[in-house]
Write the structure tokens for this entry.
Amino acid sequence: MNTSPPDQCPSWARLAQYRERIRGTRLADWFSSDRGRATRLMTAIGGVQIDYSRQRVDDEVLRLLVQLADQRALPEWRAAMFEGQPINTTEQRAVEHTRLRAGDRAPADIRATLERMRSIAGRIRGDPRLRRIVHLGTGGSALGPQLLVDALGASGTDLEFRFAANVDPLDLERALAGADPESTLVVVASKTFTTRETLANAQAAKRWLSGRDVAKHFIAVTGNERAAREFGVTEILPLPDSIGGRYSLWSAVGLTALCALGADRFDALLAGAHAVDEHFSSAPAERNIPVLMGLLGVWNVNFLGSPTHAVLPYSNALRLLPAYLQQLEMESNGKCVDREGRTLAYATAPVLWGAEGTVGQHSFHQLLHQGTQPVPVDFVVAGVSAELDANAQAQAETLALGTTDDSWPPHRRHPGNRPSSTIRLERLDARHLGQLLALYEHKVFTQGILWNINSFDQWGVELGKAEARRILAKEA
Ligand code: F6P
């Protein structure tokens, strides 16, 4: 498998040369001289479409990027992931989140866990004594289920859903406010069951139960069954080593979301993601949406020099998407050594940020339009309303084309030529959201291979944790 530095690939050098040509070109000219551009640079998979015509790429850049993917052995690496080979080499682990949504083709243990999840969720949704579910977890053990519940909402149940992730006691206080211990169920999600924030919140929730039976009021989702039992939980759902936290919303970590969505919508979520898995593993690179998303990102970061990337969902329901993607992209690809341990001479993951449109238009969009650092944008539109769609389109158009009238005073001119993609969901439901999240997962995978890094470990978060423990121990 290719683990050589990408900047030694012939296509990388050609892209670097070709960039000089692109520097002098304008999106506005490309659109006016090429009437077919808007429809040609667009591709779709089952109700999710990406329009990348406003990226600063021409046919030659796209050709070279696709060649680069080949030279990086993307198809071989992708096959290795789907085959369950231990591609997370620093931890000697396979990377198996796609198996969680493989339906009948999923391994028996995964199907058995999903069956248990469905049965537990059915029991919880049908229990008239329960009023609230409080989900405790952080990072990948919280961001996914929280996004799903916030985006899709609960249906078929009157249960209330709350989340606490921060070690600041206020977070749990807020999650428990107005709840009655008798009618509250706590789901503790922690792969390791050693994360201090989650354990502190779990201990505090236990105290709040004032002596009530932990086994009755807690469910755990973890790969560390022993620690969960020691805590007093008896209903424990497993989380295999091969499922990274930030790839785990499809697993038992999604139990809280399953309780809110109901089994049919959770199944639709998994089916949407599975459809993208099939697309990712079989579509040619030129039409493969996650591959294109990954390649366009590499072009923007490594050849056009963009240090950040904004994701702007034009949907209040998707307001948590940027936070979810921050962990997915930056914890996966925020790396400075390659698979061979060599210090990188090229940039990897950009800083991902964003907020829901149209709210951001009245704050940071000033910088997007006239700031000194062009920021590539993903506009995510979900067919919510004509008003939202029109605003997203207006922003994308203005960023790309800018102003043309030189009689305007300088402070009113927009330079334009600022790249964006528009990802359009036919509607916001479980299936389309499953598709969207899986597209981003495979985009991250593609970039990890292009950059020759391991996207599935996260050693960079450990030193700070140890240091906090040391400071606390000194103060005690
Ligand atoms: O500290 C980072 C991290 O390990 C993430 O990778 C993970 O998603 C999160 O903490 C939670 O970890 P756990 O599920 O083990 O509590």
